[in-house]
């Protein structure tokens, strides 16, 4: 007997690839390299060296991992790790870092850009100066594309012309245009960026342009003084002092300019969540309903889904596939649209539900009926999912186990209670926890149906069906623009709450597994 | 426009429990690649003088389409590439974010109540209107784009709500709200309609539509200083006049005559009128296409006064305007685009035809005098209106004011509701909540001792 020659040891994927495989590999790696080079150009142009370093490192890593046949684990770990970092770790790090700043509307950029925009916004024409008609020109002989710009300013009242030269920065009377070449519209348009940035001193202000055909002498009323770190309005005499802790300019009597800048506020946002009465006053009641909402949603959808799955699990049932397809329908419909349709159906006067059942229930107008309404919607939208997973789990329960129970004399009900259900539950418990975590932050389910309402007359801030996420969304984005810093701090709080609840549940699940498994 | 305010903000997230689709990963990867190409494509279009200049305009769908014609003419005249891009969702937020990142457009088209926020974020530059430009525009439109003494946009259209009535049911214009309610009650009694009137309220209230009635009943939101600019320190919510105005809402509400109800909201107010279920509708020019399509005979008038009030109130007047981005790449060209787009009669007519609202340009309004008299009627209905405040503090008022309105229409006691509302708003805009409540006999507020101290 001859022993067949042994194949070389190793992972089957480590074996030499076929020619198609080599080609695919070369193509994919080439594509990765092309993408990297393509991405590198703008990074170099913007001098974003950190991002460039990351790009180079990632590319090198890809080639290191895939060019060698020996690095099998890396091939599998690399994509997963990259995605984990890109879509989980980075957003979390960004959220955490934002939570310690005042980032939001009015506090988006740097102090310099705030000062710049405040000064620019205060520019107005110097009284007594004309609203000039503007023509753009270059000295005769210069190229219209890059010759030094000359602004020909015509006083509409007198018709007299002056010339403001960009290269010398001087403004002189212009008796004749003979020494100049006046630009055409397209030529002028090409130099628009340069023109808008041009500031030629003239008397108490600077020649400034508005578009391509108008100019005026403008001066800013507000100016920044770096030595005292203050901003002063020359017309009113008001002085604002830069406050580096809040990132705003503020007067002695507390008046602030709404354009501020982004600064670190340490634990300020977290302290705000805990101490601000508009937040903390409703936090407890909202949290309570939030937990109830998530737990009840999981519970009712699971009970109904399991019940339906059990009823359709009977092997002798006819037309099972038809019922199953029908039951999955709500799951297949776009949730976004369905939520809005449901909100409409719960309308007291015009809604389908009241009319169909001849009721006169103000579903969305009373706290408890509104809560029932959102749970009903959740039940309708959520049970097909539970039905699907429960069907899967039921099919995975081995028939031998049930057979053994039957032989031992267990009845149908006992088998279900003592054998089938525990096995299904063990399999599904992680899914139920995931579903809980999802529903805890199920923004759309509330926002698109009740928008958090109804609102008790004494609190326009917190409604009866508000979840923490809808409530804080209103706080962070509903008022004076977006407050990303505060929103990030609140989402960290919510993260901690969900994480703790999930962790405790998982522990209990493990305990259950040990008992049953 | 405000009826779209509430629902346009929901982030796109799947609502089903436990949904985790593998294709999300693919989509995210695709997104990353697209983002990369986006960065690459824009670079270098700014500086060099020989490159063909570019003007990028962001507007909503309808307006973007109406601007195409002017964009082409302008581009030909200046040898520029004008790209008009439709941004259908969250235009203001997207603009601020993109602008901060240096990836924003050069020109943006939007409502005048954006100005406060755009200015505080340094996203737009003043647009200096010449004397002749000012003279060619409706004065209220110019006033609406004025903020902190500067004009920040080139206005091109106005919008405000009016009382629209079904002339087949109600031939004569009612002089007062009470008269309208009496007519509506009679028609309801005769079985011709099922609702007295259709006013968008909804469970969360609708501050924008409510304001027309609120101001006709004598209430105001913010006072104005000697120059006519809004004064955020004078919060009108907590005044006796505000209480009296909201008492009228309660009387018209569900526990009263039932003319105002929370079951009619932004989504079904116009259909309720176009199906003939209500003889009156409070809405704006955006409702007219649907009314025409339904074949309802209608007429437009100002929201009438209440009996026994001076009738000095009016609706909010909103203005649509062109803005120049502070970070525009070719700012002079962007400024020229804005000035000419707003000053062009042909463009104003195209914009009005695409989206029938009274144009700000007097010449364009005159053009529609005979062909579309509705525009003039809406403008007249806003004759006593006030400019929708562009001050950032106004953003704080919308939501709580709407909710208080809804609660009062549902039958909640007025005084205590007004106290809670005033304190909540005052706390958020940095006023002393105790001093903001300014009417006699205000209910004791000891149950929220620390409210608003932040």
From TrEMBL, chain A:
Transmembrane region(s): 21-43, 49-67, 76-94, 287-309, 321-343, 372-394, 415-438, 484-506
CDD domains: TM_PBP2 (cd06261)
Domain ABC transmembrane type-1: 287-505
An example Gene Ontology biological process: maltodextrin transmembrane transport
Molecular function terms, GO-annotated: ABC-type maltose transporter activity
Subcellular location(s) of the protein: Cell membrane
Keywords in alphabetical order: Cell membrane, Membrane, Sugar transport, Transmembrane, Transmembrane helix, Transport
PANTHER family per UniProt: MALTOSE/MALTODEXTRIN TRANSPORT SYSTEM PERMEASE PROTEIN MALF, MALTOSE_MALTODEXTRIN TRANSPORT SYSTEM PERMEASE PROTEIN MALF
Protein role: Part of the ABC transporter complex MalEFGK involved in maltose/maltodextrin import. Probably responsible for the translocation of the substrate across the membrane.
Family according to the record: Belongs to the binding-protein-dependent transport system permease family. MalFG subfamily.
Protein name: Maltose/maltodextrin transport system permease protein
Organism: Streptomyces finlayi
Automatic annotation (TrEMBL), chain B:
Any GO MF annotation of the entry: maltose binding
GO CC entries: ATP-binding cassette (ABC) transporter complex, substrate-binding subunit-containing
Top-level taxonomic group: Bacteria
Family matches, as InterPro entries: Maltose/Cyclodextrin-bd, SBP
Similarity comment: family membership: Belongs to the bacterial solute-binding protein 1 family.
PANTHER family given in the database record: MALTOSE-BINDING PERIPLASMIC PROTEIN (PTHR30061), MALTOSE_MALTODEXTRIN-BINDING PERIPLASMIC PROTEIN (PTHR30061:SF50)
Protein name according to UniProt: Sugar ABC transporter substrate-binding protein
Protein species of origin: Streptomyces finlayi
């Amino acid at each position: 007997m001859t022993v067949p020659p042994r194949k070389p040891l190793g992972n089957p994927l480590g074996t030499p690839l076929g020619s198609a495989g080599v080609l695919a590999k070369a193509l994919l790696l080439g594509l990765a390299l092309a993408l990297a080079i393509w991405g590198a150009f703008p990074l170099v142009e913007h001098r974003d060296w950190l991002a460039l370093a990351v790009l180079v490192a990632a590319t090198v890593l890809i080639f290191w991992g895939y060019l060698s046949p020996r690095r099998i684990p890396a091939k599998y770990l690399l994509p997963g790790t990259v995605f984990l970092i890109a879509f989980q770790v980075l957003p979390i790090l960004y959220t955490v870092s934002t939570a310690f700043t005042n980032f939001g509307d009015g506090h988006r950029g740097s102090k310099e850009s705030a000062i710049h925009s405040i000064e620019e916004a205060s520019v107005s024409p110097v009284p007594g100066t004309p609203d000039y008609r503007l023509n753009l020109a270059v000295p005769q002989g210069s190229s219209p594309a890059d010759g030094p710009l000359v602004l020909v300013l015509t006083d509409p009242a007198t018709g007299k012309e002056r010339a403001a030269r960009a290269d010398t920065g001087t403004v002189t009377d212009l008796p004749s245009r003979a020494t100049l070449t006046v630009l055409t519209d397209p030529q002028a348009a090409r130099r628009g960026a340069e023109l808008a940035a041009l500031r030629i001193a003239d008397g108490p202000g600077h020649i400034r342009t508005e578009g391509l055909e108008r100019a005026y002498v403008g001066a800013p009323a507000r100016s920044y003084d770096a030595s005292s770190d203050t901003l002063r309005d020359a017309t009113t005499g008001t002085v604002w002092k830069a406050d580096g802790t809040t990132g705003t300019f503020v007067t002695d009597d507390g008046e602030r300019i709404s354009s501020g800048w982004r600064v670190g506020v340490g634990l300020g946002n977290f302290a705000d969540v805990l101490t601000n009465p508009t937040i903390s006053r409703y936090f407890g009641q909202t949290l309570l309903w939030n937990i109830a909402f998530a737990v009840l949603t999981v519970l009712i959808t699971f009970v109904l889904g399991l019940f339906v799955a059990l009823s359709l699990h009977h092997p002798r049932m006819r037309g099972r596939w038809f019922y199953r397809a029908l039951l999955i329908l709500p799951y297949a419909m776009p949730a976004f649209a369905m939520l809005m349709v449901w909100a409409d159906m719960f309308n007291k006067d015009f809604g389908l539900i009241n009319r169909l059942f001849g009721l006169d229930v103000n579903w969305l107008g009373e706290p408890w009926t509104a809560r029932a309404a959102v749970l009903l919607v959740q039940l309708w939208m959520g049970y097909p999912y539970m039905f699907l997973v429960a069907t899967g789990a039921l099919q995975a329960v081995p028939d031998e186990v049930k057979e053994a129970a039957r032989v031992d004399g267990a009845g149908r009900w006992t088998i279900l209670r003592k054998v089938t259900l525990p096995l299904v539950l063990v399999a599904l418990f992680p899914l139920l926890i995931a579903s809980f975590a999802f529903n805890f932050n199920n923004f759309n389910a509330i926002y698109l149906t009740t928008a958090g309402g109804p609102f008790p007359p004494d609190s326009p801030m917190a409604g009866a069906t508000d979840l923490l996420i809808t409530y804080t969304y209103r706080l962070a984005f509903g008022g004076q623009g977006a407050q990303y810093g505060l929103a990030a701090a609140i989402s960290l709080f919510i993260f901690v709450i969900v994480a703790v609840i999930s962790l405790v549940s998982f522990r209990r699940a493990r305990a259950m597994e040990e008992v049953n498994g | 426009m405000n009826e779209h305010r509430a629902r346009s903000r929901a982030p796109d997230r799947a609502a089903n429990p436990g949904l985790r689709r593998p294709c999300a990963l693919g989509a995210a990867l695709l997104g990353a690649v697209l983002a990369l190409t986006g960065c690459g494509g824009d670079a270098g279009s700014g500086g060099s003088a020989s490159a063909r200049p570019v003007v990028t305009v962001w507007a909503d769908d309808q307006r973007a389409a109406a601007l195409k014609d002017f964009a082409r003419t302008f581009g030909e005249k200046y040898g520029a590439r004008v790209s008009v891009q439709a941004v259908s969702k969250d235009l203001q937020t997207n603009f601020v974010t993109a602008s901060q990142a240096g990836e924003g457009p050069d020109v943006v088209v939007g409502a005048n109540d954006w100005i406060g926020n755009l200015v505080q974020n340094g996203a737009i530059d003043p647009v200096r209107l010449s004397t002749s430009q000012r003279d060619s525009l409706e004065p209220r439109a110019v006033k609406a784009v004025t903020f902190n003494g500067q004009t920040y946009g080139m206005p091109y259209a106005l919008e405000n709500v009016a009382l629209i009535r079904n002339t087949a049911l109600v031939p004569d214009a009612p002089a007062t709200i009470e008269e309208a309610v009496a007519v509506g009650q009679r028609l309801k009694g005769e079985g011709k309609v099922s609702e007295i009137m259709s006013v968008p309220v909804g469970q969360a209230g609708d501050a924008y539509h409510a304001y027309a009635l609120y101001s006709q009943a004598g209430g105001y939101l913010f006072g104005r200083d000697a120059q006519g600019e809004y004064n955020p320190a004078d919060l009108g919510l907590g005044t006796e006049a505000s209480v009296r105005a909201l008492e009228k809402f309660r009387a018209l509400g569900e526990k009263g005559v039932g003319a105002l109800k929370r079951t009619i909201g932004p989504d079904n107010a116009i259909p309720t009128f176009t199906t003939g279920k209500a003889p009156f509708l409070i809405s704006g020019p955006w409702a007219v296409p649907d009314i025409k399509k339904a074949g309802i005979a209608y007429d437009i008038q100002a929201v009438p006064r209440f009996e026994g009030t001076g009738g000095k109130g009016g609706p909010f007047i909103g203005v649509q305007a062109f803005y120049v981005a502070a970070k525009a790449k070719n700012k002079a060209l962007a400024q020229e685009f804005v000035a000419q787009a707003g000053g062009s009669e042909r463009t104003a007519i195209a914009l009005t035809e695409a989206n029938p609202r009274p144009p700000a340009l007097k010449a364009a309004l005159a053009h529609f005098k005979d062909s579309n008299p509705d525009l003039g009627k809406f403008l007249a209905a806003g004759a006593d209106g006030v400019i929708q405040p562009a001050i950032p503090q106004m953003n704080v008022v919308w939501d709580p004011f709407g909710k208080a309105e809804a609660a009062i229409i549902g039958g909640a006691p007025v005084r205590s509701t007004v106290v809670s509302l005033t304190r909540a708003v005052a706390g958020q805009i940095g006023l002393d909540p105790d001093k903001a409540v300014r009417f006699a006999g205000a209910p004791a507020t000891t149950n929220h001792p620390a409210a608003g101290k932040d």
